Every structure is written in C-alpha cells, then in structure tokens.
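ok so for the tutorial part 2 we go from a plain amino acid sequence to predicted structure tokens. step 1 is just haveing the sequence, like this:
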Amino acid sequence: MSKFDNSFNNSRIGFEELFSKTKNVAESLNKKSAQAIDLSKKRIEYLDTKTKLSRFYEKYGRLQFNVMMNEPIDEEELNTVVSQITAYREKLDVLKAEVEDTSEIKDTSELKREAEELRKEVKAASAEAREVFKKQMEGVYKNAKGVFKNVQNPPKAEDEPTEVTVEEVEQQE
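step 2 — the prediction. this is what the tokens look like for a chain of 173 residues:
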C-alpha cells in the first residue's frame, strides 16, 4: 500500500469520525428540540384552556346575576355552562400535571446551553479534521512531487531507459 493510500484511508477515517459526531449532535439537538416544542404546545394548550374556562366563569356569573335580579334565565344554558366549566377544570388539571411533570426539559436555557456545547464540539472537530487533512495533503503533495521529479529526470542509462516503480520511490524516501 502506498503512502498516498495510507493518507487517503487516514483522512477517510477522520472524516467518518467527524460525520459520526455531527450526526450524533444533530440527532441530540433534534430530540431536545422536539421535546421543547411538545412542552411549548402543552403550555399553550394549558393557557388556552384557562382562557376558555375564564369565559365560561364569566358567562356563569352573568347567569347567576340574572337569577339574583329575579330575571328569567334559560336553565338549559345554565346547565351547559356548568358542564363546560366542569369539563374545562378537569382538562386544566390534566394539562397542569403534564406541564409540571415534564422533567425532560423544564428550562429552555438548559437546551440552549447543550446546543452551544455541541456546536463548540463540532467546530473543534471540524478544525481538527481540516488540520489532519491539510497535513495529509502536504504529505501527498511531497510524495507526488518526488514521483514526478523521478519521472521527469529519469536516471540516464546507456541505451535503454529504466522504469521507476512505486516501490522504488517509497524505498528512496
């Protein structure tokens, strides 16, 4: 195996490692982002349910005020409002428990911190890969320059030119 092949294989292994790290970082960020989005959706649903519950309490209050003022009310409407309040209170309790029990991501600053750490790690790995690739390419250039030098200036023989093999070039180095 020539030095060029060794350099190529070493750089390929380095790139595979870099791509593997990058893939792991992307998967981790994707998972954390999905969790944060789910939590945000739950919080929005919780706030929306709270708003709807407030509206039904307001409507219930108006109906009760009308009762106190001896004004006629629709009993069906009052029963509907009471059942809606009950249903939304139950839904609110469930959503509140889900939001509070989400221990995976309670603070988005943790997600941001982890994302920043992963970004720095990928940046460092990229810089390292560039340096390794640069050194390997310098070695390849040096080897190629030696081969071309031998090809351009072959040793002079009396009548017959001699061929230079890769093994001979490697031995000369």
